[in-house]
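Amino Acid Chain and Its Fold in Token Form
===========================================
Scope: a single protein chain, as residues and as a discrete description of its fold.
Amino acid sequence: labelled as such and written in the usual single-letter residue code.
Position: the record begins directly beneath this header, with no further notes in between.
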Amino acid sequence: MLKVENVTKYYDDTPAVKNLSFEVKDGEIFGLLGVNGAGKTTTFRMITGLLDKTEGSITFNGKKIDYSLTDKIGFLTEERSLLTKMTVFELAKFYGGLKSMTNTEIEKRLDYLLEKLEITEYKNRKIKELSKGNQQKVQFIMSIINKPKLLILDEPFSGLDPINIELFKNLILELKEEGTSIIFSSHRMEHVEYFCESLCILVKGETVLKGNLKEIKESFRKKNIIINGNVKKEDLEKIDGVLKVTKNGSDFVVSIESKKVVEKVFDYIKKQKDITKFVVEEPTLNEIFIEKVGEQYAK
């Protein structure tokens, strides 16, 4: 388990991260989100030991992260960090060697990952000869060549088409099933929703929202019910707790003040005929992110 406790980082007199706390359990994918400059990269560098924190504590399985633990860590950075004159195999031996792997272990793991990502033919090709998408695949391979127990993924799907994103997803979920603690960062909120049960949103180095994603969405004030069928707008508007009713194509969009109103609307719907849709729509993470980040920038 990774524990980040009351961590603060100053650059001279400027705070980049302020009193940050979260934990990532074994086999959990945790979302760390924020706009550019929010403090995510600083946090990643402190976790991996590349940067000293000013205050607080960072531990993995109860131990301070130092060179004795780096063999168990993987880090996929947003920026490409490949040695482009090397072949894929040469690069794997370089990165695997840094993680104390034998050449036999490296080649076996590399062959497995190349097959999973459908680029076995590039094993002995130089990095500079590969497309941007295939270079991203190679960078991902290098970050997980050592079967890390702690993995940081910063914008892992950058430059990938939908088919290759699915290949990445399968490997990430495989690592999760094997017990890897994963920190996932992306500006694509639908990817965060797909992977993460818990998350933390940073603005200017401070936590503005943290917790279980399902609970966050349930507590967020916006809720809609989407209805398709033989109903009357004026009848829906009379229900206590209904804020407004709008038409979207053939659907009625019923905005309600709380989850308690769902039952009242459903009681009305049960008495109607030809109802083909009744969906309680929770806010998307994208909507929550925009509101919470926007609130902080408005202060």
About this structure: The longest strand covers residues 14-24. The chain has ten helices and 14 strands. The chain has a mean pLDDT of 93. Residues 221-281 form a domain with the Alpha-Beta Plaits fold (CATH 3.30.70.920).
